[in-house]
From TrEMBL:
Keyword Translocase on entry: no
Keyword Cytoplasm in annotation: yes
Gene3D superfamilies, alphabetized: Leucine-rich Repeat Variant
Biased composition (Basic and acidic residues): 589-600
GO cellular component, one term: cytoskeleton
Location within or outside the cell: Cytoplasm, Cytoskeleton
Protein name: TOG domain-containing protein
GO biological process, one term: establishment or maintenance of microtubule cytoskeleton polarity
Length: 777
């Protein structure tokens, strides 16, 4: 046998590669696979006839019984698929063999199998690959199921939902969330997250609503982590053979690569309609047998119950079967909206019509006009929630009709007697006009709407007028000035400005209700100019601004900063001199005033001049002459001094002040002249002076502490030669008046007969509030 084996070795080595790969010996086959790789790479063209010899052998390559030989065979298959034009003829056989024999094998072989399947997608055999992968999801081996899910996820991630459609595999993936194998459950979750990136939550959520709450919570958590406007935004990173020019353009223009890729994805998502992935359901067959009977019940709870069941059924099955007859159902719902007295039942019926119109889309055309007419007429209710429900129902029914068909009911509704109905009609047609074009809104139909809208701009109700202006502004934005302005020739300028204002704010929408975007068209169509055109626009704006600035004179541009610079120091310099007036007394006058104030009194009678200043002494109250500035602090709302005090105020019998003199409290003992005291009574005069200073200081201290409140002070005994060191308590003895001289008033003592050197000096404190009142009067 050894000799035979040796002779066999010599024989297969002489065989060509196409025969070696069919040899019984695995070493011979493995050698043949290696030679095939070199052969396939060396072909000058993908149309080479050498590839035709191996077309029917590819399905045997991927199912080789020996794993070592199969590993080399997969390399040869990858080279064949990448280089040969005829590789697509055996895509089903190669894909099924890979799924059955390679996806559950060693990791290197598994990865090569992924590359072969993705290469088949690149040569535009994605439909066949997707069908085989969906079949692989039913395999009993968890490794194969997990590998099929992973290939679908990777293919969707790199090629996008336009190249690898989601609809064929989505229904088979959702049940795998409950698979007993953890790897299958995890991979199916990752695939649904990738699907969510491409079709969004609004489309995916109704399909996975029957998932267990725990799994739904896990999915929602993963969905919330995604940043679809940033790093997690889906992008196509691998391209078909027919898209290689786009790939080279993106790689060649690195600065504009992200812009082009994003615009390409936008175009792809517009071509993808997630609603088409939902299976239609016959809603009428699932209604209860007594559905129509309960709708005629007199109990509003019965009517609401069956309507809630219908709404739940439409929510769970968002795509009703389009070829069913819904005329009876729509008729009953419209009757409830029109005549039912219970507003709760009416709202549920409106929601049912909305869900039915959204699900049927174009198939709702036979019921659209009647639905819009009934819902807009019911908008006479002023509650916001009611208006929103019926407005949504009208917008859901509009795609099934057109503006030409709506023109008949529009004339009636725009002339409705209820203002809120006209306002709601304006708002509905504003939304319709935002999705219109010149092709869908001809001049003939436009005039029908313009007559009613122009008439409503002169209505008494402000909300009707504003909504009419908004509707006309949308028409202006949609069709342009040249189509609208000739019909507004008789309109005054104020109304025209209002329409133009709304036209500037208006946003045009596509048929899906999303804002229109013309940027992707210009970016994609222009191959070489697309990365340059946005840069040119950005540069032109600042140049235009510079040109307009240069046209003006240079003087105003230079004067503006100079004015600003000058104003700042002027403000700073002007502030400090404002508080003191520039005209002030001279130095000689100020020195004379100081000399006059510093002169000490020669006799006891001289104490009647001015009120003494309170000295700040903690141990003893002492006598000190006060100035008008210190008194001003304790007397609020004092008049400003305009002239210094005169000498006339120093006369002994009477004290008079001028009108311009500051308000100063004055103490006077008597209107009669005080007799001169003998020399022996010097101590008494000193005690008299100290006593007076003590009483005056007490008066001043209490008036400042109480902020002008009424207080009384009593002087110490005048016969004592040493002044009292502790404050005396107020007594009820006669007190001296303290008045503020405003005009030439004479202040005299109430008891002139008792005024002598030995008696106590009566002092009474008058409240400052009464002094101010008297001064004002």
């Amino acid at each position: 046998m050894a000799t035979v084996g040796g002779s066999d070795d010599n024989e297969w080595q002489k065989l060509p590669p196409d025969q070696k790969v069919q040899h019984k010996a695995w070493k011979a086959r493995m050698t043949g696979y290696e030679e095939c790789i070199k052969l396939f790479r060396a072909q000058p063209s993908d149309q080479s006839p050498e590839f035709n010899k191996y077309v029917n052998l590819m399905k045997k390559f991927v199912i080789d019984s020996n794993e070592n030989a199969r590993e080399k065979a997969l390399d040869a298959v990858f080279a064949f698929v990448e280089e040969a034009n005829v590789a697509g003829k055996v895509v089903n056989d190669v894909a099924s063999g890979l799924i059955a024999k390679c996806l559950n094998s060693r990791s290197k072989m598994r990865e090569r199998g992924f590359e072969i399947l993705l290469m088949y997608i690149e040569i535009e055999k994605q439909i066949e690959i997707e069908d085989e992968l969906v079949k692989g999801l039913e395999n009993k081996q968890p490794k194969i199921v997990q590998a099929c899910l992973e290939i679908l996820r990777k293919g969707l991630s790199v090629f996008g939902s336009k190249i690898l459609p989601i609809k064929p595999f989505l229904k088979q993936v959702i049940p795998l969330l409950d698979d007993r194998d953890k790897t299958v459950r995890d991979e199916s979750k990752l695939l649904l997250v990738e699907v969510y990136k491409w079709i969004g939550k609004q489309t995916l959520t109704p399909m996975i609503q029957n998932v267990k709450p725990i799994q739904m919570q896990e999915l929602q958590t993963e969905f919330e982590k995604l940043d679809l406007n940033g790093a997690d935004k889906p992008r196509q990173t691998r391209f078909l053979r027919s898209q290689q020019d786009l790939k080279e353009r993106i790689e060649g223009t690195a600065a504009a690569s992200s812009i082009v890729v994003d615009d390409t994805n936008i175009e792809m998502q517009e071509d993808l309609d997630p609603f088409e992935m939902i299976e239609p359901v016959n809603i009428l067959e699932r209604l209860s047998k007594d559905f129509f009977e309960k709708l005629e019940s007199k109990q509003w709870k019965d009517r609401k119950e069956v309507l809630d069941d219908l709404l739940t059924l439409l929510t769970q099955n968002p795509k009703p079967k389009p070829d069913s007859d819904y005329s009876e159902l729509v008729k009953v719902l419209k009757k409830i909206i029109t005549k039912d007295s219970n507003i709760t039942v009416v709202l549920v019926a409106g929601k049912c019509l909305t869900a039915l119109a959204k699900g049927l889309r174009k198939a709702f055309k036979n019921y659209a006009l009647g639905t819009i007419d009934v819902c807009l007429d019911r908008c006479r209710e002023k509650k916001t929630n009611i208006l929103e429900v019926f407005r949504e129902a009208c917008e859901a029914a509009y795609p099934a009709t057109n503006l030409e068909q709506l023109s008949e009911i529009a004339v009636v509704l725009l002339a409705h007697k209820t203002p809120i109905v006209r306002q709601s009609t304006h708002q509905f047609f504003t939304k319709c006009f935002s999705m219109a074009t010149q092709a869908t809104l001809s001049k003939k139909i436009l005039k029908i709407y313009l007559v009613s809208l122009i008439k409503n701009t002169g209505e008494a109700d402000q909300s009707v007028r504003e909504s009419a202006f908004e509707c006309l502004g949308m028409l202006w934005k949609c069709l342009g000035e040249k189509h609208i302005l000739p019909n507004l020739a008789d309109m005054d300028e104020l109304k025209l400005n209002k329409i133009k204002e709304y036209a500037e704010k208006s946003v045009l929408l596509n048929l899906r209700g999303e804002p229109r975007s013309t940027a992707p068209v210009s970016m994609i169509n222009g191959a070489s100019s697309s990365p340059v055109s946005p840069i040119i626009i950005i540069k032109q704006k600042p140049t235009n601004i510079q040109v307009t600035v240069d046209k003006h004179d240079e003087e105003p541009t230079q004067s503006k900063p100079s004015v600003v610079i000058k104003k700042k120091p002027i403000v700073v310099i002007a502030k400090p001199p404002t508080p003191p007036p520039p005209a002030s007394p001279t130095k000689n006058e100020l020195l004379e005033d100081k000399k006059k104030e510093a002169r000490p009194p020669k006799t006891a009678a001289s104490i009647t001049t001015t009120a003494p200043r309170v000295a700040s002494s903690r141990s003893k109250p002492t006598v000190a002459n006060t100035s008008t500035s210190n008194i001003k602090l304790t007397l609020p709302k004092a008049r400003p001094a305009t002239a210094p005090p005169t000498k006339s105020t120093l006369s002994p019998p009477t004290i008079t002040t001028t009108n311009t003199q500051r308000l100063v409290p004055i103490v006077q003992t008597s209107t009669t002249k005080i007799r001169a005291k003998p020399p022996v009574s010097t101590n008494r005069r000193s005690s008299f002076g100290s006593t007076l200073s003590s009483s005056t200081s007490n008066l001043q201290r209490q008036s400042t502490s109480t902020n002008g409140s009424t207080s009384s002070l009593s002087s110490t005994n005048t016969q004592t030669s040493i002044p009292c060191t502790r404050p005396e308590t107020p007594t009820s003895s006669t007190t001296m008046k303290i008045l503020r001289s405003v005009s030439n008033d004479v202040i005299s003592s109430p008891n002139p007969s008792t005024n002598n050197g030995k008696s106590r000096i009566p002092i009474r404190a008058i409240p400052i509030s009464s002094i101010v009142k008297k001064s004002l009067t």
